[in-house]
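*** Protein under study ***
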Amino acid sequence: MHAEYSPVPHRRLIERHQLNAYLQVFNAWNQRSLGYLANISCFGLMLHSRLPLIVGAEYQLYLCLPGLDGQTHRLDFRASSCWCRADPVAGDYATGLQLLSGKREFAQLAAELKSYFSFVDPVQA
């Protein structure tokens, strides 16, 4: 049986969260935000930023991660920029960064994010 469309407005039961409010990437030298985490693996990440990053440059960076204890935790890492492309639709830049340090922490973070954002089939749960 299919649910029918109802023109009656209803309230959202689950609050939406903007990821870019939580997953900012900062320059460790001046503590300024470079942009937002777009995706992640144990080898690197893709960053969305207002300005392009220099390809081939090394960066000392950190992420501020919300903790279960209500505190913000800092994840420091070094990364090298492999590519940078303008995104004309979003009006920003996407940069691929290869991790030079912090690989274990990024592997753990990638696994936690995958688990958090994965949908579990209730039949198999």
Notes: Residues 22 and 65 are 7 Å apart (CA to CA).
